[in-house]
Sequence to fold (253 residues):
Amino acid sequence: MLLEALAIFVIILSFIVFVFQNKDDGRTAPGPKPLPIIGNLHMLGKLPHRTLQSLAKTYGPIMSLKLGQISVIVVSSPQTAELFLKTHDIVFASRPKIQATEYLSYGTKGLAFSEYSAYWRNVRKVCTVQLLSASKVEMFAPLRREELGVLVKSLRNSAASGEVVDLSQLLRELLENIVFKMVLGSAKDDRFDLKLLVHEVLNLVGAFNLADYMPWLGVFDPQVSNSITYLALNFYKKNIFLATFTFYKFFTI
Fold:
């Protein structure tokens, strides 16, 4: 009985929020009419880029959508995109906060997910000076030449024997070996799987989570409490040493 009453209360509250948030004051961009609670989420389908292209033909190069409770502006022409990405890039520089980045980046910290601020500018400066400066890049030039030589030799041997090679796989292994040697001093380390780490991050960040679009449902969202929490904890458990070692090596040289 209590759960039924709670469900009814949540539905009524959602409808009230929807009504007040979707009053047309004439200042929003044109767009399809959203449904209560879910907004326009049902319209995106399995190929959202195709859906957005089709909607842009109806509503123009700048249109508004409602993804759950989140208002979104969709830009679909080069001229208008330039306004957002170049002319007013600082205004729109921050990434949206999602559940996955809260777990994976200690509350959206770091260069990739933090909002544009003095903190982000300082982190970028540290990365530029400590990781991407000419002296740092030149320091690892012999290592890169060595690994490229190994790759070229492998390709030469495969060509001589008529063996079919997966160039994408070889390039991924090349990058993996270079990163491992830069960070750990050796090409392989059985304690870490860099490819698995990258795939885990991409899967977590790209996963659909209801609480990203209905923030007030975060505490009730089983995807957050089960899937993301489990994967994020597993992510940290396997890679905390690598992260600590990387920070120490690059920021104490």
Remarks:
- The longest helix spans residues 222-251.
- The first strand starts at residue 62 and ends at 67.
- The CA atoms of residues 8 and 14 lie 10 Å apart.
- Confidence is low (pLDDT under 50) at residues 244-253.
